[in-house]
Specification:
This protein is α/β, with parallel strands linked by helices. It has eleven helices and six strands. 44% of the residues lie in helices and 10% in strands. Helix 4 (68-78) packs across helix 5 (97-112) and helix 10 packs parallel to helix 11 (226-235). The longest helix is centred in the first third of the chain and has 18 residues, at 30-47. It starts with 9 loop residues before the first helix and ends in a 12-residue tail after the last strand.
Length: 253
């Protein structure tokens, strides 16, 4: 990357490409995902006499950054609830892992339809700075709706490529914390991981960046607590910021 006056972090300036997670990093869709998961999990938890799903801590620890099926299985296993896996075509419900994942999908699509999801302003400013410097960027997500989200929020044209849940299924890419999604994004940009940065807000995501041996892993801590920032670092973040606008010079924020 050539000298970038708008960017104040030398480690990022040294990178030739940037791979961004989507939910929570580019778009503020994490609350919609969290409330959709709560609507899917709470009926199961009631049936088993357990406490409700915590849309902040349980979301961050067990489902954030993971595919629907991986997230459903991860949380239910953590609670010791042994539902059968079921079939990916199971209708929304509580009888199987697939049924719970389908309920989450149904709830998320309902929330997405109300138009409440936007792009984070600081991220948009950073994307424009990278775009102006001709630094290629990829958007990565385990969600099958990533392209729709990026188009809806008006930032799709700032990315040279998108790797989403549809690509993951077609290419048999494993979900985070496996680095396969990020590595595919870097491959499509034509830049090796050791010359690329990863930007993530999920624990599984920063761990994926570390496992993929990316040059720089930036953790985005929307919770802005000492505990959450520390956990991002423990899982692999080299740098933690509350908002990506912090990476820009004051006049560009």
């Amino acid at each position: 990357m050539e000298s970038m006056s708008a960017i104040t972090v030398p480690e990022l300036e040294a990178c030739r490409a940037v791979v961004f997670d989507t939910d929570g990093v580019i778009t503020d869709s994490a609350p919609a995902h969290a409330t959709a998961w709560k609507a899917a999990f709470d009926p199961v938890l009631r049936e088993h006499g357990q406490a409700p799903f915590d849309a902040t801590e349980d979301y961050r620890r067990y489902v954030d950054g993971k595919s629907r099926l991986d997230g459903a299985a991860s949380f239910l296993t953590q609670r010791g609830i042994g539902l059968p896996f079921g079939d990916p075509e199971d209708p929304p419900g509580t009888a199987s892992v697939c049924a719970v994942a389908a309920r989450k999908e149904e709830e998320f699509m309902r929330r997405l339809g109300d138009g409440s999801v936007d792009a984070w302003p600081g991220t948009v400013r950073l994307l424009h700075a990278l775009y102006e410097e001709r630094v290629p960027c990829a958007a990565v997500s385990s969600s099958r709706h990533a392209r729709d989200l990026l188009a809806h929020t008006g930032v799709r044209t700032l990315f040279q490529t998108v790797v989403d849940g549809n690509d993951a299924a077609h290419l048999a890419l494993r979900g985070k914390p496996d680095p396969a999604l990020f590595l595919e994004g870097a491959r499509r940009l034509g830049v090796p991981p050791d010359a690329s940065a990863v930007v993530e807000d999920a624990l599984a995501g920063v761990e994926a960046g570390r496992r993929g041996e990316f040059s720089l892993v930036i953790g985005v801590d929307r919770a802005a607590t000492a505990i959450s920032a520390g956990e991002l670092r423990e899982h692999g973040a080299d740098l933690v910021v509350g908002d990506l606008g912090e990476l820009l010079a004051p006049e560009a924020r």
